[in-house]
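Continuing the batch. This is chain 6 of the set; chains 1 through 5 are on the previous pages. Same settings as before, nothing changed between runs. Recording input and output for traceability.
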Amino acid sequence: PTALNQLCKKLSGKECGSFNFSLGPDGPFQKLTIQIMDTRNNILFYIKTATSISGQAQIDKESNILTQLKKMKRLSKHVPAPIYTGKVKGVSLLAQSPIVGESSPNSLNHSITEFLEKLVTRDTSPLCDLELWKNTKEHGYNGKHASKLEKVEHELNQLIIPKTIMHGDFASWNMIIEN
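Output for chain 6:
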């Protein structure tokens, strides 16, 4: 497509050879991911976008997280670099670099555990401060479940939850090994 070719040239300075499109699972957070390759089939970058408001909010959140993680010295070489984040014709768009390396083995080894150790933080939080809990209350359990949720929150709010850095691209099936 011409618009993608123009965007590719603008973001990478190279001619695009081919594109692969992947439409994520159907639902309110559905995203379109486009893999953009040069004329030799080397991956230049990925573009993520969505048409729903919820999906666009997820794209914006991912853009912010990648930008923050890229600033962390211990993680910067392990996360995709945001090449472009913003809106195009009012639609959220994230262009990110590919991660360099080869697929990891199917078993847990030293390089994987070493990487996972880099994700550990010393942060903790009460349950009610976690974004997951806030989203559950806001979107998942209004109306008839509100009283049950309040009871659970009261009982579990004494828990201090350890936090770690996590991102969908850190899923075990996406991990890579360098060298």
